[in-house]
């Protein structure tokens, strides 16, 4: 089995479903080009049947981006698939991503159908999509709550019908990591033709476990991950691209790799945040404002002695210019001394002790002490 994990970015499709985060076609092209520059393998550009704007976006991104595969979403409906196929005519490498619900909850309550009819519809959808493109991905929606036996039967059937990728999504963010990992392992153990396709994973973050579930899926054989920048997406969001990429990069014992240039993560995160008008939470892993910031005195002292005491990755590896020491009332003498020296001030210990006492009084009032405040303090 290949040790490469393919990065399927759905920022422009699933990520854009966040209320208030919609982009124009021109804005989507800007983001798509940055995703290409970063090295993602597949860009899901939109859901062509949903609106003329989404159809146009898939067309124009297909014309503007050449390296990644361009993917268009569809339901297991002929009209959807036709729209996706038409929109992908200009793609150098096009993929139709079609699918239907696989859990009994969806089969009964969403489709008012039966397992047998769902199986027939899935096979027909894949076969129809193959008339437009060779690369067809099938999604078994709500696989996180699906019966394992039926999920394996459905996976085997769509691969036989021509699916090159099968997506086993935890659509509702329901699974625990061990549970989801076992689900992927079950697919590999019980689907006879599984090695004729790539198994993909698409996890939502309803319980805050999207990244953990995605990694569990990869560790059990999946080789495509469906992710978004900053983890944006429906409800609580999707698996975060930057978290998965850096987890694979840092945990070398996994023996896996991606083709993503991690130094582009922070710049692209900022671009997506600005264009979608959706701030990144300060404590967000990898790209948050505080991801490489230290404010506790104990942490600051350890970091200043050796960065690896409190940082498991170099900020430059993700495109962050440098780590920061944030001066607050929790900071210690070492951090204050370090910041003063950066400003050109050096003091003996008794003098520094006096400045530190005044610093604590200032920090209690101002909460965070910046360089301008320090200049005022030493004067």
UniProtKB/TrEMBL annotation:
<keyword id="KW-0028">Amino-acid biosynthesis</keyword>
<comment type="pathway">
    <text>Amino-acid biosynthesis; L-leucine biosynthesis; L-leucine from 3-methyl-2-oxobutanoate: step 1/4.</text>
</comment>
<keyword id="KW-0012">Acyltransferase</keyword>
<dbReference type="Pfam" id="PF22617">
    <property type="entry name" value="HCS_D2"/>
</dbReference>
<feature type="domain" description="Pyruvate carboxyltransferase">
    <location>
        <begin position="5"/>
        <end position="266"/>
    </location>
</feature>
<keyword id="KW-0464">Manganese</keyword>
<comment type="similarity">
    <text>Belongs to the alpha-IPM synthase/homocitrate synthase family. LeuA type 1 subfamily.</text>
</comment>
<dbReference type="InterPro" id="IPR002034">
    <property type="entry name" value="AIPM/Hcit_synth_CS"/>
</dbReference>
<dbReference type="InterPro" id="IPR054691">
    <property type="entry name" value="LeuA/HCS_post-cat"/>
</dbReference>
<keyword id="KW-0100">Branched-chain amino acid biosynthesis</keyword>
<protein>
    <recommendedName>
        <fullName>2-isopropylmalate synthase</fullName>
        <ecNumber>2.3.3.13</ecNumber>
    </recommendedName>
</protein>
<dbReference type="Pfam" id="PF00682">
    <property type="entry name" value="HMGL-like"/>
</dbReference>
<dbReference type="InterPro" id="IPR000891">
    <property type="entry name" value="PYR_CT"/>
</dbReference>
<dbReference type="InterPro" id="IPR050073">
    <property type="entry name" value="2-IPM_HCS-like"/>
</dbReference>
<keyword id="KW-0808">Transferase</keyword>
<dbReference type="GO" id="GO:0009098">
    <property type="term" value="P:L-leucine biosynthetic process"/>
</dbReference>
<keyword id="KW-0432">Leucine biosynthesis</keyword>
<dbReference type="InterPro" id="IPR013785">
    <property type="entry name" value="Aldolase_TIM"/>
</dbReference>
<dbReference type="GO" id="GO:0003852">
    <property type="term" value="F:2-isopropylmalate synthase activity"/>
</dbReference>
């Amino acid at each position: 089995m290949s040790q490469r994990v393919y990065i399927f970015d759905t920022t422009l499709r699933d990520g854009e479903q966040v209320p208030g985060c919609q982009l124009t076609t021109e804005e989507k092209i800007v983001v798509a080009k940055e995703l290409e520059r970063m090295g993602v393998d597949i860009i899901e550009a939109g859901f062509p049947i949903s609106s003329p704007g989404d159809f146009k976006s898939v067309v124009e991104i297909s014309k503007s981006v050449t390296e990644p595969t361009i993917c268009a979403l569809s339901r297991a409906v002929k009209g959807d698939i036709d729209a996706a196929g038409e929109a992908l005519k200009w793609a150098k490498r096009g993929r139709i991503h079609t699918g239907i619900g696989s859990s009994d909850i969806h089969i009964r309550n969403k489709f008012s159908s039966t397992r047998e009819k769902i199986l027939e519809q899935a096979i027909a959808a894949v076969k129809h999509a193959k008339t437009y493109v060779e690369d067809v991905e099938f999604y078994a929606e709500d696989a996180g709550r699906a019966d394992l036996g039926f999920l394996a039967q459905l996976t085997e059937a769509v691969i036989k019908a021509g699916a090159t990728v099968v997506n086993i999504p935890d659509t509702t963010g329901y699974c625990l990591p061990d549970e989801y990992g076992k689900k992927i392992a079950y697919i590999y153990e019980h689907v006879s033709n599984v090695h004729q396709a790539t198994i993909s994973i698409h996890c939502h973050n309803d319980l805050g476990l999207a990244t953990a579930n995605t990694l569990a899926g990869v560790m059990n054989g999946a080789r495509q991950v469906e992710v978004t920048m900053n983890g944006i997406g429906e409800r609580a969001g999707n698996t975060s691209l930057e978290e998965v990429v850096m987890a694979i990069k840092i945990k070398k014992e996994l023996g896996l790799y991606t083709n993503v240039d991690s130094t582009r993560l922070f710049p692209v995160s900022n671009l997506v945040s600005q264009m979608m008008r959706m701030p990144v939470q300060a404590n967000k892993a990898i790209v948050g404002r505080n991801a490489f910031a230290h404010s506790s005195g104990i942490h600051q002292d350890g970091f200043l002695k050796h960065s690896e005491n409190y940082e498991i990755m170099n900020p430059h590896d993700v495109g962050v210019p440098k780590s920061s020491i944030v001066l607050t009332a929790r900071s210690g003498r070492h951090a204050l001394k370090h910041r003063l020296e950066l400003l050109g001030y050096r003091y003996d210990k008794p003098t520094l002790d006096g400045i530190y006492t005044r610093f604590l009084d200032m920090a209690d009032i101002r909460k965070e002490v910046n360089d301008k405040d320090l200049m005022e303090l030493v004067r």
